[in-house]
Amino acid sequence: MMRAESLGMSGITTPALEARVTDGDGPPLSTRVMDAEGVVLVECTGRVTVFNSQAAAHFGIPVPLHIEHARLPGCEWVRDDGTPLPPGDSPLARALAGEPVDASPWHVLRPDGTRVVLRCNAVPVRGGDGQVAAALLRTHAVEAVPESLLDVSRLLAEAGALLGTSVAAEAQLEPLLKLLVPALGEGALLVLRTPGAVGDEVLRVAASLHADSGRHALLRDLLTRYPPDPSVPGGLPQVFTSGAVGRLPILSEEHVVAIARDAEHARLLREVGPHGCLSVPLGARGNVLGALMVLRSNVLRSFGAEEEHFLTELAHRTALYLENARLYREAREAVRQRDEFLGIASHELKTPLTPLSLKVQLLQKQVVVLAREGKDVPTDRVADALDVVQRQVRRLSGLVDNLLDVSRITAGRLRLELEEMDLASVAAEILYRFSAAAAQAGTELGLEAPVPVVGRWDRLRLEQVVTNLVSNALKYGAGHPVIVSVEAQGTLARLAVKDHGIGIAPDDLVRIFERFERAVSDRHYGGLGLGLYITRQIVEAFGGKVSAVSTPGEGATFLLELPRGDIPEEWLVAHAAPGPTQSE
Ligand code: ADP
Asked: pTM of the full predicted structure?
């Protein structure tokens, strides 16, 4: 039996209290806790003189001995929309300030994350001097927010059915979110990362849904106008970088102020309303493809372990599905590329065959006619024809060599035999080989290579690389000068091929180094789209890189950077032009 008077509160008038603070015998607490009255008596000093077991059950905390600023430890008084009440507005604080609070429903967020709605009645208790000495709070639980009843196996089965029906990956994502809304939360979104330049990735909202139609449109508007920014600290980037689950208990006003990019952003965030958020990574085969996020406008209901587990499993399945859809798309694209390539390759292989067989047939006829007439075949005519034959045979064998190289590269069988050589001499030799063809095309060839640039490379492969670049410069820049320059920069050798031809559009500059990629129409220029791919593969096998810069319509410059390899120190020093690597 607890009596207020026996708790050292002499002078405090608590007539109705004695009966109320009694914890009588009766049914177990759990079955009567919702009906019974909680009673709390707190002195102005913060000393808790009464805190019965119903109160402990209502607030979900053990009996405190002392509280600061009228705050019950771990509990938050919140408005019915979930936003926290200012500390001075809670019934206990108001009663301590001398203001009685009538029996209206109050929402309390308990330390375990559950919410309870309490009918509270709080009165100031005055001492003999008329001053407020304590506050008496009585609570009745009106309703406890039920735990969500997740039917995990049904939801996963439905998700499986959705994800299994189509390969049009993203079309299935919104229906997938319908499984989560409202079962898990009032809103859900699926964010995918689109790889950009390093550290410059873009996050894209692939699907979003809100149970409330007004908020659904608002959420769409918000996400379209202010897409998630991976550089803003908070739950989202953490999900992407660490692959860990992110939680945001509530998007409070402080959060809004912290993350809003401008006033309009803040307005939209506020209008969508306060939400708690659980975001889980879409992880597949070691990659984080994005995040699946559930928004809960009822922030008083925290996400439970079972819900987190379910969401993680669903995110994993979704990620695998997206990954498989990507692989399927890529496989289809590869088949399409292969078919297109076969078309181009047959055309390319046939092109030299036509003049070749015409020339041979013509020669054959002439030989037969001349032999019948008992005349000799004029040597200049034969030489002329053989010239054509040889050119076309060379072109054919070049095409076949390219095809063989690609299959060697694909099978990882590109072997290099390294030896010491001078890149400047290699460039001079290749330019010499092209001199006749260049003169015929009216192209002036120039070489700027003031000093030898020695390194260890595979001669044939290096020649092939330089040949590819020079032949492209002649092909796409016919009639305009082509300059090849060679220089050393410390441990690097550089070779640049500059032409003044058709140039390359910025979007194509990276693509053209891929297999079968071309940036010109095959009606105007023949080719298999393999030369630069092979060039890049060889250069990378040397440990170097190849790149291109261009102004469309004004020409292109292809730049090779090759490590000079393990060569004697004096070669590095004697013939190195001053450059950044050296001056360091
Ligand atoms: P191909 O010349 O057989 O098409 P490449 O792999 O050598 O194949 O080149 C790929 C594409 O790059 C070409 O189709 C062309 O669009 C572009 N390209 C290469 N070199 C140049 C250049 N010097 N000027 C303009 N475009 C070029």
From this structure: 0.52
